[in-house]
Amino acid sequence: METLLLRESEALTRAAELLKRGEVVAFKTETVYGLGANAFDKRAVHKIFEAKGRPLDNPLIAHIADISMWKSLAREIGGGALSLAERFWPGPLTIILPKAMFIPDEVTAGLDTIAARMPRSPFALELIRECGFPIAAPSANLSGKPSPTTAAAVLEDMDGRIPLIADGGVCEVGVESTVISLVDEPKVLRPGAVTLEQLREFIPDIVLADSIAGKPMSPGMKYRHYAPLAKLVPASGTADEQAAFLCTQYDITPNAIVICSEETAAKLSSRRHIILGSRNSPAVILSNLFESLREADRRGAETIFMETFGADGAFLAFRNRVQRAAGEN
Ligand code: AMP
Ligand code: MG
């Protein structure tokens, strides 16, 4: 299969055509690039799993353009869910509720619940409106790899596997949405750019899932994710301790690359590093994480040493992705 790369209105027209015909298409959202299909068409949704090599027991997020679409997906949308949506949608928050009867099992991995999100990217919203149905979409990477935040990164993984990549430029947020469940007690299943602190202003008693502390719990959370080809080793300790550790690694580890803040880069003895941004701008650091992992692979790194930044605000999502990409390292 030939994979077309198109932009703007040409991309929109072609993407809508393909989606209506039951094909899969990659498109930009503000979080990461998604690999979308008609959420009501189980054969189309199945093609997502084939293109990604994704395990069938890992459920998808349905992307919507308005609240009436949400009502076609979820059985009951309570007042709490609606006010969260009003505050954070369109934006990088996914809400899990009991599902409506006619959602294909392929979307929810057989669960009785459905994850929904209204993306902020104008292209994604227009595409969903043009189609008139919710678009089920995971990240547009091969299963297990870092999520793509540029069309070039999608092409690296999906060339020959899908008919179209709608190139909308660089994703602003750069990591997947925050996922919360409102099915039982309100719970954060995956941290993202909408922070725990922001959610607590609305739901003071919302808790973090054990999986964020490292124990596999949520479906799909048990798989190794986000992993570059290189071995990934997170640093730990204070900023000074980490800088000292990172400096010594160049001498003892062949083909090492350091990924770090600009403050730490200024202290390093080698130029073999990739800068994420300033430690004072957590959102910028987060947005550059996945692309930095892919860039380290492109440069042929054997080992990546990664600076870490604690768990406050957006850094909780950063820590979560780095821990899961590092696996046992
Ligand atoms: P991805 O789109 O690749 O970011 O993956 C979506 C993730 O959302 C899955 O891996 C799950 O962790 C989570 N998710 C989606 N639907 C559900 C659901 N019904 N219940 C629990 N978690 C879900
Ligand atoms: Mg993914």
Give a description of the structure.
It is globular, with a radius of gyration of 19 Å. The chain is built from 13 helices and 15 strands. The model is unreliable at 215-219 (pLDDT under 50). The chain has helices spanning 8-20, 42-52, 67-71, 79-88, 105-108, 122-131, 151-158, 196-202, 239-252, 262-265, 282-287, 289-298, 315-326; strands at 4-7, 25-28, 33-38, 61-63, 93-98, 113-117, 135-136, 164-167, 178-181, 187-190, 207-208, 231-234, 256-260, 273-275, 303-306. It folds into two domains: 4-208, DHBP synthase, CATH 3.90.870; 231-326, Rossmann fold (3-Layer(aba) Sandwich). It has an eleven-stranded mixed β-sheet, with helices on both faces. With 329 residues, it is an alpha/beta fold. Helix 1 (8-20) packs parallel to helix 6. The site of adenosine monophosphate (AMP) has 20 residues, from strand 6 and strand 10.
Averaged pLDDT: 94
The gyration radius over C-alpha positions equals 19 Å
CATH fold-level name of the largest domain: DHBP synthase
CATH superfamily of the largest domain: DHBP synthase
Roughly how many Å apart are the termini?
Answer: 37 Å
Number of helices: 13
Structural class: alpha/beta
Number of domains: 2
- What fraction of the residues are assigned to beta strands by DSSP? 15-25%
Compounds present?
Answer: adenosine monophosphate, magnesium ion
Report the uncertain regions: 215-219
For the largest sheet, list the strands in their spatial order: 1-8-2-3-7-4-6-5-9-10-11
CATH class of the largest domain: Alpha Beta
State the helical fraction: 25-40%
